């Protein structure tokens, strides 16, 4: 309506209905969840899956979700995870082949058949591969002497060492355990100079060269076996290598080709790569460096550390125990959220107790066949510029390839915006577009209903029409002048009204939170001189009694009190802001009311002049002190700058000459042998 703001239409549904808005005209869109892809978790045992030839195994449900999000309103959906029996496993064994690992190699050669036999108890689909590393083949990591490059161990018995290398991919992932034992059996030890090895170079290539390694979208395990420290980003400068590691695959004929031209990767780079590739790493290391690799557990996404014996005879036990530890814990993670979006998790693990916060992301001690669930809540920010494609978030358990794709569709428009009426007659005969019950005016038209021409109206004219008189403010300072009419403001549950917004209900007292106790009353103003101990008729319907003379000025409720019987104690506020208490009693006549006014008023106390003066004086003193301190600082800075400039000028004018230096001594010394004779 004219005189109303557009924002006045926005409130809770209950309030709008109470104001009289028809329910079919309300726009109150709610969020919703749509399951786009919801393949159920695999429930059949492995024997039935073999009979039905079910190769695809599902541990995570759902797979794709579309969320319609109202800004500020969280939308929640459930994600289920079940550790399925007989889930496929890929394991890649990455071994340090420096000279100190010579006694470990024989046990690794026997690992293929033993590990295949052990993993059959967990899965029927198991594959394993093998790779080896030493270090970069430049100084100071290795000796570049020709004989040392050929045989870095300087021995011939029982066999010479092979030339050093950075990383060599030996065997792609295979289900043939005999082939693993055969190819690993052919490996020989190499050597280098410094103690740390180039393991991070090999780890990066084993993770990113998915096609060469043969990684599948199944459980990916990488066993990293060494007895030494590792080089990391920045160490390459020792060998003159400054180009950062690009995190790409550089294998040619199964050999890493960028070892001498790219620096080592950083620990954070490796951790992020393992997270993206869904690789769970098992560090099988000796006791001397266990503490170092334990520190990586807080950085790497899914990581286990096992203490390797001196000759690696316990490597099989380490792999089995680490696999059980890694797969018994599920930790949910998500990709980066769009700006302003928020996400939270609530987990229900085996004990069915809800956990929130960071604990809501994980469940531990999960056995094969156990199912857990996570309630994921996503909240959208206030609407901004709509993007062409809906934002996308990926949720998945750490170390697993399965994921939940979440498409985010914010609700930023009302359904009524689709039914716009251009040139609507409701907007001053077609001067605007009717959209969701309000007018969007054409260029040059203003007003709630586009009723004003911007060119014809001016600020001066509108200002004149919206003033009560020449000295008053526009709309009494309580509204805006639109098309020569005042549009009054609202303040919470109170409002200004009147032609010039000169009236308000702010001054009316409330009873139980309601203006005038919820009743509409008419007030009469009494401003009479009350005689002592006399009864004065103020109006035909009122009689006032006082003990002595005084001036009384306050409002009384009109004939609405006349039918009341008995004595009533009342309170009003006079023109000076003081509270006046009085008694109302119905007179003998039908329209007669007696008012007994108390002599003493309750007025607000005067301000404490002494305290105010003291506070102001102290503030002035503090302010003056701060100003003087800043002034001193400014003068000191100016003086210091001048002195420094003077010093620089003198420094530039000074010229050094060795002939002028009194303490200069030549670096050339001439000695003459007195016994020397020319021949």
TrEMBL record:
What protein name applies here?
Answer: Integrin beta-1
Q: Which gene encodes it?
A: ITGB1.5
Q: Which UniProt keywords apply?
A: Integrin
Natural source organism? Nibea albiflora
């Amino acid at each position: 309506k004219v005189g109303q703001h557009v924002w006045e239409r926005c409130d809770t549904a209950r309030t709008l209905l109470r104001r009289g808005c028809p329910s079919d005209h309300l726009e109150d869109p709610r969020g919703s969840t749509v399951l786009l892809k919801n393949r159920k978790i695999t429930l059949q045992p492995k024997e039935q899956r073999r009979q039905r030839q079910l190769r695809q195994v599902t541990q995570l449900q759902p797979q794709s979700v579309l969320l319609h999000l109202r800004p500020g309103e969280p939308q929640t959906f459930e994600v289920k995870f079940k550790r399925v029996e007989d889930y496929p496993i890929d394991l890649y064994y990455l071994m340090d082949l420096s000279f100190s690992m010579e006694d470990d190699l024989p046990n690794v050669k026997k690992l293929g058949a033993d590990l295949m036999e052990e993993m059959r108890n967990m899965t029927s689909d198991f594959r394993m591969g093998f790779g080896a590393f030493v270090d970069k083949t430049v100084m100071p990591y290795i000796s570049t002497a020709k004989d040392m490059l050929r045989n870095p161990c300087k021995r011939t018995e029982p066999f010479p060492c092979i030339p050093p290398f950075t990383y060599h991919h030996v065997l792609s992932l295979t289900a043939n355990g005999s082939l693993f034992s055969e190819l690993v059996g052919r490996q020989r030890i190499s050597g280098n100079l410094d103690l740390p090895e180039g393991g991070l170079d090999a780890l990066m290539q084993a993770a990113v060269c998915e096609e060469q390694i043969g990684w599948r979208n199944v459980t990916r395990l990488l066993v990293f076996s060494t007895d030494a420290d590792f080089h990391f980003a920045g160490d390459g400068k020792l060998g003159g290598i400054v180009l950062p590691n690009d995190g790409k695959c550089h294998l040619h004929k199964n050999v890493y080709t960028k070892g001498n031209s790219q620096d080592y990767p950083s620990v954070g780079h490796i951790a992020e790569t393992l997270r993206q590739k869904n690789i769970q790493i098992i560090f099988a290391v000796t006791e001397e460096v266990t503490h170092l690799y334990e520190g990586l557990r807080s950085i790497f996404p899914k990581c286990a550390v096992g203490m390797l014996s001196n000759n690696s005879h316990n490597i099989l036990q380490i792999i089995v125990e680490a696999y059980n530890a890694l797969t018994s814990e599920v930790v949910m993670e998500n990709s980066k959220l769009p700006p302003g979006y928020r996400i939270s998790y609530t987990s229900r693990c085996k004990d069915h107790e809800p956990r929130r916060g960071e604990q809501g992301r994980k469940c531990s001690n999960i056995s094969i066949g156990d199912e857990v669930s996570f309630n994921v809540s996503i909240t959208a920010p206030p609407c901004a510029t709509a993007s062409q494609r809906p934002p996308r978030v990926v949720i998945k358990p750490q170390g697993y390839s399965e994921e939940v794709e979440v498409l985010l569709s914010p609700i930023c428009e009302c359904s009524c915006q689709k039914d716009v009426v251009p040139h609507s007659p409701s907007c001053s005969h077609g001067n605007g577009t009717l959209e969701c019950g309000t007018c969007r005016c054409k260029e040059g038209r203003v007003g709630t209903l586009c009723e004003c021409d911007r060119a014809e109206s001016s600020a001066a004219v509108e200002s004149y029409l919206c003033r009560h008189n020449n000295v008053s403010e526009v709309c009494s300072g309580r509204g805006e002048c639109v098309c020569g009419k005042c549009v009054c403001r609202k303040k919470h549950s109170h409002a200004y009204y009147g032609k010039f917004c000169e009236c308000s209900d702010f001054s009316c007292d409330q009873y139980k939170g309601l203006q005038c106790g919820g009743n509409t009353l008419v007030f009469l103003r009494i401003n009479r001189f009350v005689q002592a101990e006399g009864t004065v008729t103020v109006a035909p319907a009122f009689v006032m009694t006082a003990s002595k003379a005084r001036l009384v000025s306050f409002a009384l409720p009109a004939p609405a009190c006349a039918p009341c019987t008995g004595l009533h104690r009342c309170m009003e506020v006079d023109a000076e802001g003081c509270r006046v208490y009085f008694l109302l009693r119905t007179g003998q006549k039908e329209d007669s009311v007696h008012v007994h006014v108390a002599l003493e008023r309750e007025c607000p106390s005067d301000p404490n002049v002494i305290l105010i003066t003291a506070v102001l004086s102290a503030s002035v003193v503090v302010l003056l002190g701060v100003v003087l301190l800043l002034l001193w600082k400014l003068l000191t800075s100016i003086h210091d700058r001048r002195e420094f400039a003077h010093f620089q000028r003198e420094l530039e004018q000074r010229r050094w000459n060795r002939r002028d230096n009194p303490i200069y001594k030549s670096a050339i010394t001439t000695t003459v042998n007195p016994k020397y004779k020319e021949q």
